[in-house]
Specification:
The protein is mostly beta strands. The protein contains no helices and eleven strands. Strand 7 and strand 8 form a beta hairpin. The mean pLDDT is about 95.
């Protein structure tokens, strides 16, 4: 099993930045991939970004050029740096980890973009 715990959400003005953190209970090299998803009210959960154990990354078109996913293997933590935030980025952001054919989710962290 893997436990993941998100942190770093909050309230930010449009154009601002936030950095989300996802701490995993296992060494990152043992986890196939870790990803950030988000779910806005009334909408389906969607992939924002993911990073594999060998460092490959992918991004949703809506966040390309604004968000950056990274990892700190020493801290077993994956980050999502979010810049130039827009109203439409408001959502609950979830971290997940794919480990041995199973997917594990965190409890989510709220990101609110408002002036």
């Amino acid at each position: 099993q893997v436990q993941v715990v998100e942190s770093g959400g909050g309230l930010v003005q449009p154009g601002g930045s936030l950095r989300l953190s996802c701490a995993a209970s296992r060494r990152l090299f043992s986890i196939s991939s870790m990803g950030w998803y988000r779910q806005a009210p009334g909408k389906q959960r969607e992939l924002v970004s993911a990073i594999t154990s060998d460092g490959n990354t992918n991004y949703a078109d809506s966040v390309k050029g604004r968000f950056t996913i990274s990892r700190d293997n020493a801290k077993n933590t994956v980050y999502l740096q979010m810049n130039s935030l827009k109203h439409e980025d408001k959502a609950v952001y979830y971290c997940n980890a794919k480990f041995k054919m199973a997917t594990y989710w965190g409890q989510g962290t709220q990101v609110t973009v408002s002036s």
